Each structure stands twice: as C-alpha cells, then as structure tokens.
Amino acid sequence: MGFFSKLFSDQSDPSERQIKRALKQVIQMHGEAATRVGAMERLASWRTPEAASALLRRFTVQTPQASMDLEEKQYAVRLLANMGRIAVQPILSYISAEPDVTYPVRALREILPSDEFHKCLMDILASLSTGYTRWPEAKAVFIAHLSDEAFAQVAETVLRSLEDEDDDVCIAAIDYLARNGDETIREKLIQVFLDAESRPRVRGRILDHFCEKEWPVKGYRKKMEEAISLPFYLTSKGTVKRKSE
C-alpha cells in the first residue's frame, strides 16, 4: 500500500481533543520539525473539515529556519490537496479571513476544476471589494493566481480591482489585464494612468506595459504628453519608450 493510500485510509473521526492537540503541535514554531510534520499528517489522515481547518493554521506561523518553513508549507499544500473536496470549505473560509493566502490558494487550485477554482476566487474578490479588509495584499495574490485562459471569465472582476486604493492590488490587476487585454483594456489603462497622479508605482507599471506591447496613446496624446515624465517619453508615432541610461 502506498504512502497516501495508508495516509488517507478510512479511520474514525477524531475527537475535538485530538484535533486541538495536533493543532498545538502544528503551530509550535520553535518545536521539532518531526513533531509538526507528524501532527500535520495526522490531521490530513482524519479527513474532516475540522482537521483541514487545523492543518491550515500551519500557514499562520513561520519557523526560524526559512528553508524548513518553506518545505513544511509546501508539504501542507500537498496534504490539503490530497484531502480533496473535504478541504475546500475550510480553505475558502481561511482565505476569506487571513492575510497569508498564497499556499492555501495553491491547494485549492489543485483540488478544483479550473472553472470552479476561478469562480471561487472571483466570489472572494467581489466580497472583498465591497467592504473593508485589513489585508489588501491577499487580493493581489488572488489576482496573481488567475490563469490567462480564464480571462473572459474573470476580466470584469479584475477590471474593478483597478480602482483599488492599494497599489499592489492595482498593479496585480494591471499586470493581468495588460497581459491579456485588447483595445478596450488599452484605453482603460490610459484612464487609470491619468487618474493616478499621486501613485508613481501604478503609473510606472502601466508605462512599462505600454513600452513592452508598443501600444499607442492615440486619442489621449496631449494628456499623456503632459503627464509622462522621464525616464519615459512619447515617440513621434505616439508610443511609449524608456530612455536608456
């Protein structure tokens, strides 16, 4: 019998006390790695939503040794993915409320079909855009995990993120849209650029994409000439270039 066959064989549901004990070991950042990993494996083997929720808490702590921390978190992703749909709702609850969402999102992507995965991320992004969140960086992570193939499905949601007050979220949306966009996106990014007078990072990222894609600023040349500053400039053809140092 293979490792995961043993790991996920049928077992009786754990008690609340067992889960609490395993959770305590999972988040003991100064404890032995073997103890943490063993507790992670026990939680995964129990295959209950409560056990998945406890396993997810591994992403809330960081051990002193960075390489070990990375390996354990990657392993936690594998364990969650192999729990399958039992872990989906706990993951969704976690990423809707916690700041460090990168690893749980990876696990969710491995569990769900593409369409369902992207719908989950869009639903969370939509809910976060209508209210206050203490961790806007999570929204940038969600956008970064959207595949290019899902552009038609997610474009409207990502477009709304261009209005986000957090630069990292706005830049994540700019990157995704510029990579997949058409004429409509070109004009939208020009408007965002013109409105971002006090946001140099946002303006710089937009101009980087215009340089790379050789998009013209037609229809907005006068306004763009007034707004663009070195090291960027407009060519006679109305495309954006960066001066070489």
Provide the residue-averaged pLDDT.
91
Content of β-strand? under 5%
- Distance between the terminal alpha carbons, to the nearest Å? 62 Å
How much helicity do the residues have?
A: 55-70%
Task: Tell me the overall shape.
Answer: elongated
Low-confidence stretches: none
The secondary-structure element order is HHHHHHHHHHHHHHEE
- Determine the number of helices (DSSP H or I, runs of at least 4 residues): 14
Q: How many strands, what sense, and barrel or not for the largest sheet?
A: 2 strands, antiparallel
Strand order of the largest sheet: 1-2
Number of strands: 2
Query: Taking Cα atoms only, what radius of gyration do you get, to the nearest Å?
Result: 22 Å
- Given the helix and strand composition, which structural class is it? mainly alpha
Sequence-ordered SSE layout with sheet pairings:
Layout lengths: L2 H5 L8 H11 L6 H14 L2 H8 L9 H18 L4 H8 L6 H10 L2 H16 L7 H8 L6 H11 L5 H14 L2 H13 L4 H14 L7 H7 L4 E3 L5 E3 L3
What would your notes on this structure say?
The chain has a domain of about 110 residues. The longest helix is centred in the N-terminal third of the chain and has 18 residues. It has 14 helices and two strands. It starts with a helix and ends with a strand. Helix 5 packs parallel to helix 7. By secondary structure, the chain is mainly α. A hairpin with a 5-residue loop joins strand 1 and strand 2. The chain is about 65% helix and about 0% strand. Strands 1-2 form a two-stranded antiparallel ribbon.
